[in-house]
TrEMBL record:
UniProt keywords, alphabetically: Acetylation, Calcium, Cytoplasm, Disulfide bond, Metal-binding, Nucleus, Phosphoprotein, Repeat
GO cellular component: cytoplasm; extracellular space; nucleus
Biological process (GO), any one: regulation of cell population proliferation
Taxonomy of the source species: Eukaryota, Metazoa, Chordata, Craniata, Vertebrata
Region annotation (Disordered) ranges: 1-26
Protein name as annotated: Protein S100-A11
Keyword set includes Nucleotide-binding: no
Segments forming a coiled coil: none
Compositionally biased tracts (Pro residues): 11-21
InterPro entries reported for this sequence: EF-hand-dom_pair, EF_Hand_1_Ca_BS, EF_hand_dom, S100/CaBP7/8-like_CS, S100_Ca-bd_sub, S100A11
Stretches assigned to the EF-hand domain: 105-140
Organism: Galemys pyrenaicus
Role summary: Facilitates the differentiation and the cornification of keratinocytes.
Amino acid sequence: MGRPSALRPVAEPPTDGPPGRRPVAREGTNHNLAVRALEQVRVSFFFFFSKGKMSRPTETERCIESLIAVFQKYAGKEGDNCRLSKTEFLTFMNTELAAFTKNQKDPGVLDRMMKKLDLNSDGQLDFQEFLNLIGGLAVACHESFMRSACCQK
Ligand SMILES: [Ca+2]
């Protein structure tokens, strides 16, 4: 485990108990360690995106920053600027993913996508729900690239 954050001190991972006994499932569960690791990443990203960017961002960091910026751009068009309304989602799809939407012959496809992505059924897409869309599209593109790469061999 890395150094404790200045913002959120992190308890040291538990030491192993006597053989044959599992440590008390509180602080040291894998789930809690994973959650704490995730919090560390979030804190690091908070510093990266909010403070002076001391070093040039990597390609991956720029991609993450772009996804956040695009989400905020469309989510901020009306109402709750932390979530995409259906109108904002349609604007996003027809602007940013026009190549995808233009090829759709089924006019209900975006409605169904919105319903499927809206995991908590609040009629809006939060950033996590938005990322599920981006992740799904990225996987589909990757698989398509892989298929065409395999066909060229
Ligand atoms: Ca939602």
